[in-house]
Design goal:
It comes from Reinekea marinisedimentorum. With 218 residues, the protein is mainly β. It is built from one helix and 15 strands. The two termini are 26 Å apart.
Length: 218
């Protein structure tokens, strides 16, 4: 397997071994707070959005950089919000995405960062997925199990850098390489975008914020 080359933060030209263009980054500044992100920027979509119980709005409540982020709220006992950003050129067997995520300490359920395809009301066909539990445990989706690989603080921002190539992926959190060569959960789901979601289909109250979403694939 090819060794993955990791750089935390913003991706620059030539950062990965297979070549990379200048990354496009979204910090959500300059957008109107309170506006649904899919209205503020039509390149984002939100699955299960109802504007009240399920929302994904530009928010000035928390921000890693500048003044805004996207606030995801699961106020429904039957579904949860999926924030989706597609890759500009479709399926990508190799790639790198970085994102900052803030999870509320009051959350009882997990927040997820998934790379995959075909997002529907039932979720995303996952190529790989990182899970941060309500207590801050970091796990990855491995099919029949979700192995724990790290721990993060809640009520603060954490940076996740995910890089995949040749059927495996690596995870860097806050500039520290956590694991390299992690297995892909379903190689058939060659990813077409990133999906970030929070909560579950049974309880309410999860809140997560997303900022500085960056990749050359956008």
């Amino acid at each position: 397997m090819k060794k993955l080359k990791l750089l935390s933060g913003v991706i620059c030209a030539g950062a990965m071994s297979f070549g990379i263009a200048q990354a496009q980054s979204f910090d959500f500044d300059g957008m109107t707070a309170g506006q649904s992100i899919d209205k503020a920027d039509a390149t984002f979509s939100v699955i299960n959005l109802d504007g009240s119980d399920i929302s994904a709005i530009v928010s000035s409540e928390q921000a890693y950089s500048g003044s805004n982020s996207v606030k995801l709220m699961d106020g429904s006992a039957t579904t949860k919000p999926y924030l989706h950003k597609a890759f500009a050129n479709g399926a990508a067997a190799e790639g790198k995405v970085s994102v900052k995520v803030y999870t509320a300490g009051s959350n009882g359920k997990s927040t997820y960062v998934a790379i995959g395809k075909d997002v529907t009301v039932d979720g995303v066909e996952r190529y790989l997925e990182i899970q941060s539990t309500g207590s801050g445990k970091v796990k990855f989706e491995a099919g029949k199990s979700d192995p724990e690989i790290s721990q993060v603080q809640r009520d603060t921002w954490n940076e996740y850098v995910i890089e995949w190539a040749e059927g495996s992926f690596s995870l860097t959190i806050n500039g520290e390489l956590i694991e390299d060569g992690l297995p892909i959960v379903d190689p058939d789901n060659v990813p077409t975008g990133i999906v970030i979601y929070t909560g579950d289909n049974k309880s309410t109250g999860n809140v997560a914020y997303v900022d500085d979403l960056s990749s050359d694939l956008f």
